[in-house]
Write a structure and sequence with these properties.
Layout (H helix, E strand, L loop, with lengths): L1 E2 L2 H11 L3 E5 L3 H13 L4 E6 L8 H14 L3 E9 L2 H9 L4 E4 L6 H16 L4 E6 L22 H11 L3 E4 L16 H11 L3 E3 L7 H9 L2 E6 L1 H11 L11 H23 L7
Parallel strand pairs: 1-4, 2-3, 2-9, 3-4, 4-5, 5-6, 6-7, 7-8, 8-9
Length: about 280
Amino acid sequence: MALVSLKQLVTDASRRQYAVGSFNVVNMDTLKAILEAAEENASPVILSVAEAHFGFINLEEFSPIILRAAEKAKVPVAVHLDHGQSFPALVKALRNGFTSVMFDGSILPLEENIARTKEITRMAHAIDVSVEAELGHVTGGEGDSSPGVADPSLFTDPEEAKRFVAETKVDALAVAVGSVHGIYKGTPELDIPRLAKIRDLAGVPLVLHGGSGLSDDDFQQAITHGIAKINVYTDMSQAAMAKIRTVNTLPETLGFPEFMSLVHEAIKEAVTKKMQIFGSVGKAR
């Protein structure tokens, strides 16, 4: 269909009560698996590159490949910088044609987070690029598979969310309501009443980071109460690693390309399952 903005995707998702998945791209295999899943399921999709994964991807070399694939896709696709924390990373994404960026100032004091987010939004909106920011702090490291737990003291304050959005003019707000980046230690419990209040006061589509490990009901409750974008990486990584661990059970005659096709299918299956849970299947028709 087209390369689109994050704002277009999350606005439609919010209006039609589903969530669009934001899946991290770390190489060609993940890029192809995500797009194939999106096209086969007629689902809009967000291709994300996290600053934490810059060590695996040369952004200048890989951006044209991602953008060309997005432009040729049969579904709406946004290309997004995930968890941009440094100014050079944000500028690099903007210069390389990304249609949205996330500035993650969640570890900063509120006033500094507002000031820096406001400047990023002013710069990005000038060239029609959408901006996501984070208020409160989702614990766990981006790209870190160590088990973690949510910290209620870091959850998003609804009144602060209202002020933050009004002053920064962001297009989407990532919130901390009980999810964790990476693998959960124990059973996650989302603060749905808090999420509903943030939705009512903030007035923009909300984003859930740390989407791996939640139950189907958790996701559905989150979507019902304002979540329009959900980030996924750990489930994809775990699906790929599970397939890789079966290598000793496969025929010795199986070649490397054939084996990587099996890994590719495992990633695509994980992405498809999330699209089904998020309710995005068929929304691109």
